[in-house]
Amino acid sequence: MDIHSDTFGGEYPFKSNYIKINDVRLHYVDEAPPNNPKAEPVVMLHGNPTWSFLYRNFIPPLVKAGYRAIAPDHIGYGRSDTPLDRELYRLKNRIKFFSGVMDRLDLKNITLVMQDWGGPIGMGYAVEHPEKIKRLVIMSTWAFDFPEEFGQELPPLFKMCREPWLGEAMLLGFNVFVEGFLPGAIIRKEKITPEFVRAYRAPFPDYNSRIPTMAIQDVPLERDHPSRPTMLGIQEKLNRLKVPTLLVWGEDDDLLDVKRLPEFWKMIYPHAELRLVPRAGHFLQEDAPEEVVAIIKEFLAKNP
Q1: Where are the domains of the chain?
Q2: pLDDT for the residue 138
Q3: Residues taking part in catalysis
Q4: Torsion from C-alpha of 273, 274, 275, 279, nearest 10 degrees
């Protein structure tokens, strides 16, 4: 079945919406309470190699709680178009595409929920539009320059994926981020169902469709990396955001280290509340959706 119509066993029953920006069709889910289509928006951003399917268990409870739940697919992911021009997947361009979607939707009082690459992309938008942001929910992500030693501490798989030729073979030829990294990072292995596997394979059926997963090479760990100026530009403006902030981390997250990354964020936002989720790793939306949604709903209620 085609990814554009497949509901993946009924787990993803949402209506598809599309916006075209610079000839690229971008997909997003936009669900709201029937009696309040313009309810306060909660915008949820995925990373690599996931898509809005990641938030399938967040959307209904947030709508039931009275919020408008919006989950975009970044360029090249999920039901969005996958252009072959690799330069379009640079951080600066991914921010431009997401910002274009947000401008068209014309939202205000936004709660921005971000994980993995959702952090740099979402914060790239937020620091330029602080007046539109009401709350931040930061989950296993970053939006700042990593210390230089971080590159040396990467898992071997990630180091190999960042090598020019070897990385391309692994990411595009063997789809290693979907076949290896994603299931390997799930702590509660019972969550890896046949529909889970099918849904995350669906956007990447062949070599060229997997170009977006090369985002691992766009993490600016080297001083001369082409995306480093973009990341530094975001970092310099993070203090523009003076809103209630929630940090949610899986206790077993060893990719974006639970022992260090939340502390980096606390240096930027000392007022931020930190919540740790047991038996959850980098993809805490998959490991512990009920727990994480409950934490987010509690945060929303405490910060009306």
Answers
A1: 17-302
A2: 99
A3: 116, 253, 282
A4: 170
CA triple 105-110-114, angle to 5 deg: 100
- Both tokens of 146, joined, read 């990593």
* pLDDT higher than threshold 90 for residue 234: yes
How buried is residue 108: exposed, middle or buried, by Cβ count under 10 Å (0-12/13-18/19+)? exposed
Q: How far apart are the first and last CA of the chain?
A: 42
249-272 mean pLDDT? 94
Residue 7 neighbours by CB under 8 Å, 6+ apart: 13
d(CA 250, CA 284): 6
Record the tokens describing residue 252, joined without a space: 């077993």
Q: How far apart are CA 176 and CA 172, in angstroms?
A: 8
Residue % of the chain over a pLDDT of 90:
92
pTM of the predicted model as reported, rounded to 2 decimal places:
0.97
Per CATH, which fold does 17-302 belong to? Rossmann fold (3.40.50)
